[in-house]
């Protein structure tokens, strides 16, 4: 069931990107969209009764570190995409005078 | 206990994202995404991903909020309502949600994903990180050691972000 | 240990931060060219090695497969690597004058850095043997291409870059989630390992979901028919040299991922046959080929016309793959290379002639035949290649595609291919007619086409003719690859 | 915000702590949560806070745009150079064993250097992005 909530988030993010006309809200939708996938990876990495994967003498069960590593990389990709998108938005406002996609008229 | 908390936190995330859809004020939308990131960080913390949690907090609540706020200085703070009709998209949304829910029903429950968490690579990392690398934090040893090539890619990605933003924003005139 | 596979990625990578330190346009340009040239020689050496001795595996950090990341240079990788890097090199050689006119002076060194990084992304995608590493390289190439596109000065450029960013990111996230689901079922990220374990894993609905996501993600990257919208806009509004580069490379990378994922990694569950996916894609692509050719006929802008034609040609490639017989795969591989060369040549000619022009419409081509006799004869030959007439490589690939169709159960598709070829003839003819038979009223000064640009265009044209006469180079390797894929033994 | 005395003093008190925390995250990443990327982001945040309170001019005088470009390039170079050390000694790319005589020490040193490269690049890219977003019109 957790996955269903997670996928709801996934779809909401997707629909914000597709439907919204305001570019900043689209970028936020993209962030939500990406976050839902991050949560998915971390959900499968959990081990029942496990602890964070920092090795210590008195523990034997650890959660899976590999998805954590993958998501660290994916978060970096996500912040890179966000900053690029925001820079483009500033230029778009400069050039077209609006950041509403529907209002941009290319003539 | 953890599972119940996860349900609550995920629902909070959904509520926040619905607020993002409804609200027209960009400032409150951005602040709510900051909260979104903090809740995400909390979820990661609950699921033992402390490194990811720290990163999400630093990036989502720190840098990305700063960037969003820097951006809305230049644009109108109130977003106009989209002209597209909501009805078909809501129907499509629920159709997709139902079909995806049916499809993902057989995924292993969190905490019981044995194929993944007993896989060869994972076991190797946990057993050998201290002996081979002397690094107790397995995430660090996998990130910089075993899968160092991915991290090189990650650095390149952030490098591209730097040069791209520099190049895109250069020579835009007439602003204070 | 053979170090060539890693050098192909890391040598240009080593150069990029150095270029950022140097920042002098001329030095940056020279170094970029030198490293691209060294890269091509490395790739040819690698290709020869792989062709003779089989695929080369390179373990990064010395860690064996499921633990670390490794590179796998097989024949398919080398095939894609070669033409992508050759096209990149030719575009770089002819880029200097064009870029000076279209891109802000202070941004030129950043532009070349991004170009190199984009190419590194392509090489990485093709070489890696780790499915998550593939995602990372995909993002490297996508992010740098958003930047490259945004650098033009057309009216729609920024919006095109923005929309490409959104659609590209959606595709990437789809692929990321699909990788996650596959990982959840198999516990491995290495492609070989994954291919083995996915066959042993029990059947599961969520794998179907992952397949759908993968198909959508790859479809976006390769501009599969209903998802092709971004391609038209980016090709029309990117700096013309970037359009030239992407026309030959970026969508072909999508085709590579499609081949790698659906025919190699997931081969043991045979997704395309089992779920009737192949027929579905086949009919969609057929519709796509027809409609986009129709759009191309109606276009007034030359770049958009060529962009729609690209979508149609990609449709042929996808159709040939989806026939699911060895001959189909061979045909598609041949067409990938031939179409890349032809389309790069056509776009390059447009790019060098109209250095300043905003939107090149068909009328702008009037009377160019007299002004640029050599260039326009190249254009004519490449145009013939696009239609698929004899003595050009286009004929060879059309021939292979039609033969493959006749061998499969979809023989009646050949009519559509012939029909769209006639439609292609009609829009190429419109261009040729303007070039040779229309007179030009306004006497614009003739651009100086530098000797390097001339060299590149003539090289591409000669390659088109050469591959049309001497087919063993492309078809020989392509047959080897498809025999490998379908497990046919012997040559 | 040059007239908010309280803000200025509190910032002056906080920033050393933020930077110290960043350095802790950077160099203690082997034993607890954290690593180069997180440290880079935190250090950049501290510096950005300083810029917000005291103005961009003061920030530029400490770290100019050209300097951020150089430093981010050097971070990437450091990473790739560590990778190439393996190739030079006849091993594979990114094989840290080659760095020191003992394999385990070599791995530790390799991870340390790589994380340092990541931290350097990330912090400078973040600062550069912040500069770019807030300094339009002037020469970048």
Can you put this structure into words, describing what you see?
The complex is a heterotetramer of chains A (107), B (176), C (491) and D (140). With 176 residues, chain B is an all-alpha fold. Chain B has a domain at 1-81. Chain B contains eight helices and no strands. In chain B, helix 1 runs antiparallel to helix 2 (26-46). The termini of chain B are far apart. Chain C is globular, with a radius of gyration of 22 Å. With 491 residues, chain C is an all-alpha fold. The relative contact order of chain C is 0.09. Chain C has a two-stranded antiparallel ribbon with strand order 1-2. Chain C has 20 helices and two strands. Chain D is mostly helical and 140 residues long. Chain D has one domain. Chain D is built from five helices and no strands. The interface between B and C is large, with 40 and 48 residues.
Write down the CATH topology of chain A. Answer: Helix Hairpins
Which regions of chain A are unreliable across 5 or more consecutive residues at pLDDT < 50? Answer: none
Largest inter-chain interface?
A-B, 78 and 89 residues
The run of helices and strands of chain A is HHH
Output the helix-strand order of chain B: HHHHHHHH
- Indicate the overall shape of chain A: elongated
Q: Per the principal axes of the C-alpha atoms, what is the gross shape of chain B?
A: globular
Strand content of chain B: under 5%
Question: Which structural class do you get from the secondary structure elements of chain B?
Answer: mainly alpha
Oligomer: heterotetramer
Largest beta-sheet characterization of chain A: none
Q: In the CATH hierarchy, what is the class of chain A? A: Mainly Alpha
- Secondary structure class of chain A reads mainly alpha
Q: Bin the helical content of chain A.
A: 55-70%
Topology, number of strands of chain B:
0
Tally of helical runs of chain B: 8
The level of helicity of chain B is over 70%
Mean pLDDT of chain B: 88
List the helices and strands and how they pair.
The complex is a heterotetramer of chains A (107), B (176), C (491) and D (140).
Chain A: H1 2-19, H2 23-45, H3 65-96
Helix pairs in contact in A: 1-2, 2-3
Chain B: H1 2-22, H2 26-46, H3 50-72, H4 87-103, H5 114-117, H6 120-133, H7 138-146, H8 148-169
Chain C: H1 4-22, H2 25-53, E1 56-59, E2 70-73, H3 75-102, H4 108-127, H5 131-150, H6 157-186, H7 191-200, H8 205-221, H9 229-237, H10 240-265, H11 271-274, H12 277-298, H13 302-322, H14 326-353, H15 368-371, H16 373-387, H17 393-407, H18 413-437, H19 451-469, H20 472-486
Antiparallel strand pairs in C: 1-2
Helix pairs in contact in C: 1-2, 1-4, 2-3, 2-4, 3-4, 3-10, 3-14, 3-19, 4-5, 5-6, 6-8, 6-9, 8-10, 9-10, 9-13, 10-13, 10-14, 12-13, 12-18, 13-14, 13-18, 14-16, 14-17, 14-19, 14-20, 16-18, 16-19, 17-19
């Amino acid at each position: 069931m957790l996955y269903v909530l997670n996928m709801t988030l996934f779809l909401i993010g997707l629909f914000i990107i597709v439907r919204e006309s305001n570019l900043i809200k689209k970028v936020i939708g993209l962030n939500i969209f990406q976050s839902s996938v991050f949560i998915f990876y971390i959900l499968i990495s959990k081990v029942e009764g496990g602890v964070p994967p920092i090795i210590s003498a008195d523990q034997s069960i650890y959660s899976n570190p590999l998805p954590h590593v993958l998501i660290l990389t994916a978060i970096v990709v996500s912040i890179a995409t966000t900053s690029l998108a925001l820079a483009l938005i500033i230029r778009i406002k400069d050039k077209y005078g609006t950041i509403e996609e529907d209002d941009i008229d290319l003539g | 206990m953890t599972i119940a908390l996860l349900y609550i936190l995920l629902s909070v995330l959904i509520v926040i994202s619905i607020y993002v859809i409804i609200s027209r004020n960009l400032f409150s939308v951005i602040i709510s995404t900051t909260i979104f990131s903090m809740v995400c960080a909390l979820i990661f913390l609950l699921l033992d991903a402390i490194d990811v949690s720290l990163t999400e907090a630093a990036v989502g609540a720190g840098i990305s909020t700063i960037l969003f706020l820097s951006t809305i200085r230049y644009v109108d703070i109130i977003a106009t309502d989209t002209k597209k009709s909501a009805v078909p998209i809501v129907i499509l949304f629920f159709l997709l949600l139902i079909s995806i829910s049916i499809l993902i029903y057989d995924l292993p429950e969190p905490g019981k994903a044995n194929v993944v968490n007993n896989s060869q690579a994972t076991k190797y990392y946990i057993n050998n990180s201290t002996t081979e690398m002397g690094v107790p934090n397995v995430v660090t040893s996998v990130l910089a050691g075993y899968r160092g090539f991915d991290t090189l890619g990650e650095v390149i990605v952030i490098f591209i972000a730097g040069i791209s933003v520099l190049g895109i924003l250069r020579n835009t005139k007439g602003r204070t | 240990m053979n170090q060539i596979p890693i050098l192909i990625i890391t040598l240009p990578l080593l150069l990029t931060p150095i270029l950022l330190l140097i920042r002098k346009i001329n030095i940056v340009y020279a170094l970029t060219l030198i490293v691209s040239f060294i890269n091509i020689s490395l790739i040819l050496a690698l290709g020869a090695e792989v062709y003779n001795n089989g695929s080369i595996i390179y373990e990064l950090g010395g860690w064996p497969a499921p633990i670390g990341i490794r590179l796998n240079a097989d024949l398919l990788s080398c095939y894609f690597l070669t033409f992508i890097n050759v096209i990149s090199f030719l575009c770089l050689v002819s880029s200097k004058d064009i870029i000076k006119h279209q891109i802000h002076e202070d941004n030129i060194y950043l532009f070349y850095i991004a170009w190199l990084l984009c190419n590194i992304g392509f090489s990485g995608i093709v070489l890696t043997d780790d499915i998550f590493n593939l995602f990372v390289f995909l993002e490297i190439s996508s992010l740098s291409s958003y930047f490259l596109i945004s650098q033009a000065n057309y009216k729609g450029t920024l919006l095109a870059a923005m929309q490409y960013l959104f659609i590209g990111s959606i595709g990437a996230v789809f692929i990321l989630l699909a990788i996650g689901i596959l990982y959840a079922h198999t516990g491995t990220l290495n492609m070989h390992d994954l291919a083995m374990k996915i066959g042993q894993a029990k059947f599961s609905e969520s794998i179907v979901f992952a397949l759908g996501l993968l198909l959508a993600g790859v479809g976006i990257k390769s501009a599969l028919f209903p998802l092709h919208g971004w391609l038209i806009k980016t090709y029309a509004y990117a700096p013309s040299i970037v359009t030239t580069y992407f026309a030959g490379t970026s969508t072909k990378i999508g085709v590579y991922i499609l081949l790698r994922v659906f025919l190699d990694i997931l081969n043991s569950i045979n997704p395309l046959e089992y779920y009737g996916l192949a027929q579905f894609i086949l009919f969609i692509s057929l519709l796509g080929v027809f409609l986009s050719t129709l759009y191309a006929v109606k276009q007034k802008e030359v770049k958009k016309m060529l962009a729609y034609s690209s979508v149609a040609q990609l449709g042929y490639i996808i159709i040939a793959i989806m026939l699911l017989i060895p001959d189909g795969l061979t045909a598609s591989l041949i067409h990938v290379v031939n179409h890349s060369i032809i389309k790069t040549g056509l776009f390059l000619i447009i790019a060098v002639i109209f250095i300043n022009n905003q939107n090149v419409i068909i009328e702008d081509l009037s009377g160019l035949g007299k002004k640029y006799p050599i260039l326009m004869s190249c254009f004519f030959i490449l145009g013939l290649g696009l239609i698929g007439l004899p003595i050009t490589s286009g004929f060879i690939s059309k021939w292979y595609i039609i033969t493959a169709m006749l061998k499969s159960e979809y023989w009646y598709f050949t009519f559509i291919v012939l029909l769209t070829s006639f439609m292609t003839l009609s829009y190429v003819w419109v261009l040729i007619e303007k070039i040779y038979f229309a007179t030009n009223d306004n006497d614009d000064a003739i651009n100086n086409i530098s000797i390097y640009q001339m060299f590149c265009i003539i090289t591409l044209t000669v390659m088109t003719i050469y591959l049309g006469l001497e087919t063993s180079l492309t078809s020989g390797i392509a047959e080897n690859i498809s025999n490998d894929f379908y497990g046919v033994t012997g040559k | 915000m040059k007239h908010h005395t309280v803000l200025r003093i509190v910032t002056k008190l906080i920033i050393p702590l933020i930077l110290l925390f960043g350095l802790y995250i950077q160099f203690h990443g082997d034993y607890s949560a954290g690593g180069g990327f997180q440290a880079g982001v935190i250090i950049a945040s501290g510096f950005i806070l300083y810029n917000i309170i005291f103005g961009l001019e003061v920030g530029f005088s400490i770290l100019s745009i050209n300097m951020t470009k150089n430093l981010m390039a050097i971070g990437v170079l450091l990473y790739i150079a560590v990778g190439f050390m393996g190739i030079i000694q006849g091993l594979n790319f990114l094989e840290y064993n080659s760095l020191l005589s003992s394999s385990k020490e070599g791995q530790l040193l390799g991870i340390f250097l790589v994380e340092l490269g990541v931290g350097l690049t990330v912090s400078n890219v973040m600062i550069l992005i912040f500069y770019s977003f807030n300094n339009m019109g002037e020469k970048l």
